[in-house]
Amino acid sequence: MNLLCVRQGAGQALLLLALWSLHIPESKPQALPPSPTLGDVMPVMKVKPDYPPEALARHIEGRVRVRLAIASDGHVGEAKILAADPPGVFDSAVMEAVARYVFKRNGSGYQADQEFIFRLE
Q: Which band of pLDDT confidence, cut at 50, 70 and 90, is reported for residue 41?
């Protein structure tokens, strides 16, 4: 019985060794399609977000990074908060401002990332 187990174990080891030694050609890397996000693209009409009164009263500063889906006519179709520090403090002000942004028309939709920094001066 033990001899049978040893033979099966040895057979499995040989099978694994044989499979491991097979030459499998490496696949060539495929070219990735261009990213639909253009990074930081400047709008042709920019609206400065209002400093939230609560943040102003509490002397809170922060930043928000947002991804904008730009329609073919240059207007913002959708906006999504990517990061906010502190979370939730400046989000509404940013969303209201970017809804009025206008970007360069390019005949097709694209995405752009924008970062807003809120500093007390």
A: low
Give the whole-angstrom CA distance, residue 92 versus residue 110. 23
Q: What is the mean pLDDT of the chain?
A: 78
CB 32 within 8 A of CB 60: no
117/62 Cα distance (integer angstroms): 6
Spatial distance between the Cα atoms of 61 and 51, rounded to a whole number of angstroms: 9
List the structure tokens of 88. 């939730």
pLDDT at 108: 84
Tokens of 30: 């495929």
- Give CA–CA dist 16/3, Å, rounded: 20
CA dist 43 and 15 (Å) reads 62
DSSP β-bridge partners for residue 116: 64
